User: Fold this.
Amino acid sequence: MRLEFIERLAEGEVLGRSILSGDGKVLLRAGVRLSSQYIDRLRELGVLYVYIEDDRLCDVRVEDERLMELKKNTMMNMSQIAKNVNNCNKSEFKKSLKMVEELIEYIIDDGEVNLSLYDIRTHDNYTYLHSIDTGIMAAFIGISCKYSETDLKELGLGAILHDIGKTKIDHKIINKAGKLTEEEFSEMKKHPVYGAEMLKRNYSIPNSVIRIVEQHHERIDGRGYPRGISGNEINTFANIVSVCDVYDAVSNDRSYRKKLKPNESYELILSGSGAAFDEGIVKKFRETFAVYPLGCCLRLSNGIEGYVIQQNRNFPDRPVLRVLYEGETKKPIPFYEIDLLQNSNLIVEAII
Assistant:
């Protein structure tokens, strides 16, 4: 499969991966042949890129079907989880967490990270989608850290519940299209405290999970919130979730700003090492995830364009590309590959 931005789609191309709404419903199913009407509708919904079937890139593996199904089911359960927390319904809360546990267990058992870090979504229920993807990223970093199964489950659960306190914030503030006022931002900064209090008061939740919820906006340099703690005062799991939370947040459109490009999001995390984020966690992030999504098209400094087919471990910005077209005419050619790790004279100029 190849990843294509909406502007580059052509009629007749076949969708390679289903597109889901925020509540887990299928907007457009994999295998559909795209018409101009479908493409226009996807653009209206805010979908900026899709995966397309391509025989020349059939070996490019993106998110597996089982993980996608578990994500969809978890999305559909997130509103019930929030409802049960707010209603103090302990027994129903435990039942609704079953799907979350299945998702984390699958990641632990599978152990193979989807290095693209890309996901197709709309703006609906952003908080739930964001929480799930933050949980998946955190679990993969936890695997890189060689955590025990118990720790991985607590890390993943805390990551998925990290924004649960936002259910106590006025929806007008949460969904405001534009910069928050000082008063609104002050209220927004209380959501970690609200979330921790909700879990402490009502459930037998591990302390590590509560500390994730309470501390995921703290910074290593002490300039975070709600308490402004720093360094070793911050829980390690919370440091992991902080990195994943920020990466996923800036990688996706919001009502008040456009998403950053994958390399820009990645660089934002690296640049925050030692200030916003723990240096050791950023190092694990770099070892676990790559800059450029599998299947995306890159333009190199020599003008050649190629699709990412493989990542080079520990070299997140030097993938292997497959060149499918002649540079100037864009006509199909017998493909060949370029390993950027072996071609240090070439640099990536742009994602196209």
Q: What stands out?
A: Residues 119-125 have pLDDT under 50 and may be disordered. DSSP finds 13 helices and nine strands in the chain. The radius of gyration is 21 Å.
